[in-house]
Amino acid sequence: MATDIISNHAAFVAQKLDGLSIRETQLPVHTVPEPKTSEPEVQPPHHVTEPKPVAETSGFSYPKSRISLVDRFIDEPRALRVAVIGGGLAGVLAGVLLPAKVPNIQLTIYEKNHDFGGTWLENVYPGVRCDIPSHVYQATFEPKTDWSDQFAPGAEIRDYWQGVATKYGVHQYARFGHRVEELSWDEEASVWNITVHDLSTGETRTDTADFVLTAIGRFNAWKLPDYAGINEYRGILRHASHWDADFDVAGKSVAVIGNGASGIQLVANLQKVVGRLDHYARNKTWIAASWAGDERTLEPQPYTEEQKKEFASNPEVYLKFRKELEDKYWRRFGAFFRGSPDNAALRERFTEIMRQRLARKPELLERIVPDFSPNCRRLTPGPGYLEALAQDNVEYITTPIARFTGTGIVTTDGVERQVDAVFCATGANVDMVPPFAIRGRGGRTLRDVWDPKGGDRQFPYSYLGQATPGFPNLFFVHGPHGTGPSGTVPHSVENQLSMYARFLRKASREGIRSMEPLARAADEFVEYADAFFAATVLSDPCSSWYNGGRPGQRIHGVWPGSAGHVTAVRREPRWEDWEYTYLGPEGNRFAWYFGSGWTAKEADAGSDMTNYLKVPGEVDLRDLHESWWELPGVKSP
Ligand SMILES: Cc1cc2nc3c(=O)[nH]c(=O)nc-3n(C[C@H](O)[C@H](O)[C@H](O)COP(=O)(O)OP(=O)(O)OC[C@H]3O[C@@H](n4cnc5c(N)ncnc54)[C@H](O)[C@@H]3O)c2cc1C
Ligand SMILES: NC(=O)c1ccc[n+]([C@@H]2O[C@H](COP(=O)([O-])OP(=O)(O)OC[C@H]3O[C@@H](n4cnc5c(N)ncnc54)[C@H](OP(=O)(O)O)[C@@H]3O)[C@@H](O)[C@H]2O)c1
């Protein structure tokens, strides 16, 4: 078949050239300029015969081009080396979607752990489970009909994502046990140098990639607080994300620091088994009844065998159930606006619920109900949390921690409370500065720009949460502004990756060496976000990972708009907000892209050039002649 293509094509070109009487024009020179990126991006010359010289014709001339034609077909995209850092659900989805959507991709997924799963592999503390219904917190294209529980335990979620990776062959791209320690942009070669530490051999090496996607999670870089004396503490000291499964908490005296979702879940689950629990909460928090009317209890809420059987055997019933459940997660947006009736209703409802759940110790209510509005921090249903606080073996401590001793914690009022173990549910690097150096143009790091203490911008400055000026060919997955305040994480990540697939297709199709967002576009996005968030309760005075734990600072945890809004934005990239450099002679944007003027498919006698002709009724006019995979000659999937 390949020979046919070449000979047909060659014959056609020769015939064309014969019929032309062009004088002194730059005829195809049939050399492929060395791309500055490494092999094998460009196919070797293979399809155009040496042109016949054109006889001089007196009195006729044609403008002389600065460039020579590049000997390639337009529909043979260059191979792109793409590195994804992280194998949580975002990395798994990248491994499923990018190979399907980006022809010729050479994908590598670096993951420091021994397997996929991210959050759900690492977090194994008692009671860890989803607070979003299981049937909502799954890939849109890979439903699991037999979730055990309305809110699945962490291990089941881990198994699900590892199963998705297996089913879609994602393991072939994975480099497990490989921790990325630095990214450095090579200006000359237009590639990222990736310093990778192989945790099994202890070796460090440098790989290269044309594009890098960070999928490192928002809560993965957990850290212990830096209280004075913490290193002298001789009991068990653990972060919630680094649980010691061998430590038996039964009957022990323990401290839990932090009242984010992790701390809340831990307190509710430990209280029943420990002897005494000191809960340190330096700020108040709302406890929601549920996310979207899906009532939570501390006890398991299993699906019956009949329900699971019905979901598995009746796809229509399951789809209806799934759609109704998921629909509610798209509707919660109104309650994010300051002064809205929806938000006022939440305040009233949550206050009442908290009052009921604290009935055993009503004096706690005013110490827990916040002044800021519901939704300023991410809501947590917290089943069993308030009930646990109301028990006699729990002390709710709002006096700030001063220091640790060898045996316990001292608060600023001088009281020392001795405990066998301290569990820090103190969250992660909410400033979003990646835990390893990312050096962009001129050697400047993302930390130089984002660091709240001394960075140029002091917040995660970005263009639409996708990329940052000065850092070409680098996209953030589920990074700043990664999800809508409404919607679901898997849907958002799938959509963001699908948009990045378009970027990558464009780069490989058009011979783009580098692309980066314009600073002006990023600045205007920040202006928009400032105006938007000012109208919402997200900018109330609370500490949350939305604002990097700094009340009053810029919100970067979520998208400035609804989940439907960010989905619409991701569907149509604004190419004009990016600047590009190109492969090919003289940096001409068309030279490499347009190649010899041919498609490979049209020179293949066996291809279906009229695949756009279909049985009447099969054509959706909204999509007609727009699908990237359906150019004439390309087999429809
Ligand atoms: C305890 C807990 C419970 C949660 N519950 C919910 C919930 O109920 N609903 C919800 O919507 N969200 C929840 N979340 C948020 C959750 O993190 C996201 O929903 C989602 O799992 C994020 O997936 P991710 O792939 O973006 O990140 P992660 O799952 O964090 O994965 C990031 C991966 O990157 C890897 N990595 C990081 N740095 C490097 C490096 N330098 N080199 C190599 N690999 C690296 C990590 O090892 C990790 O595997 C929860 C978070 C936590 C911590
Ligand atoms: N499925 C679930 O139920 C579940 C469970 C866990 C996590 N999650 C997800 O993960 C996100 C992160 O949750 P998270 O609880 O791990 O982190 P988080 O929401 O950032 O909460 C961290 C908590 O630690 C406190 N803290 C931080 N540093 C401290 C210090 N030095 N001293 C005392 N307290 C300190 C914070 O207090 P301040 O508020 O005062 O800053 C806050 O209460 C959640 O919002 C949610 O999206 C979900």
UniProtKB/TrEMBL annotation:
Catalytic activity field: L-ornithine + NADH + O2 = N(5)-hydroxy-L-ornithine + NAD(+) + H2O; L-ornithine + NADPH + O2 = N(5)-hydroxy-L-ornithine + NADP(+) + H2O
Family, similarity comment: Belongs to the lysine N(6)-hydroxylase/L-ornithine N(5)-oxygenase family. Belongs to the FAD-binding monooxygenase family.
Keywords, in A-Z order: FAD, Flavoprotein, NADP, Oxidoreductase
Functional pathway: Siderophore biosynthesis
Listed cofactors: FAD
UniProt xrefs under PANTHER family: L-ORNITHINE N(5)-MONOOXYGENASE-RELATED, MONOOXYGENASE, PUTATIVE (AFU_ORTHOLOGUE AFUA_3G15050)-RELATED
Matches recorded under Pfam families: Lys_Orn_oxgnase, NAD_binding_8
Ion transport found in the keyword field: no
GO function terms (MF aspect): oxidoreductase activity
The protein's Enzyme Commission number: 1.14.13.196
Domain of life, per lineage: Eukaryota
Protein name per its UniProtKB record: L-ornithine N(5)-monooxygenase [NAD(P)H]
Region described as Disordered: spans on this chain: 31-57
